[in-house]
Amino acid sequence: MEARRGLLIILSGPSGVGKGTIRKKVMEDKSLNLAFSISCTTRLPRPLERDGVDYYFVKKDYFEKLIREDELLEWAEFVGHYYGTPRGPVEKMREEGKNVILEIEVEGAKQVMAKCRGNDVVSIFIMPPSLEALVERIHSRKNERRTNIEERLAKATREMGLKYNYQYVVLNDDVDRAAEEVKNIIRDKLNATIES
How much of the chain, in percent, has pLDDT values that exceed 70? Predict the structure, then answer.
């Protein structure tokens, strides 16, 4: 019997909404056969971030080569740095039957949703409980400069208006509850693809 191609799970939302924390909790559920797509970026690592685990930290000229050669599913430039998802590893994991999570910003999610359509793609927008909660979370990142914080907040406000472009919206009012909701969405999608 031929292996089922894995789902492409787009987990998106404004910067600081808790995508990474939710994604890590969701990935603890081994029954979902999940794999994480590691993005690449030209920014420097934050404290505790590791190359090849959290991101691939690359030089700007290498990233621009990936853009020219159409090796990225999506990419964006934000606060002076590039971020993007390498296409090859995602396709390889999906062909192996793994359900791949892309934890990406809204602009990148828009690109992926335009390129990747079908019943094996699921898009989930993570929504903060309030703008005030998002402000507090972004301010808690001690390594962010004030201008970066202001840019992130302006962008987040615009992005929250795009939540209806996604199949699902999950409120991150409680990380454990939000992670359970995401797991249930993935389970339902897996069951629907098996039945079809």
Answer: 91
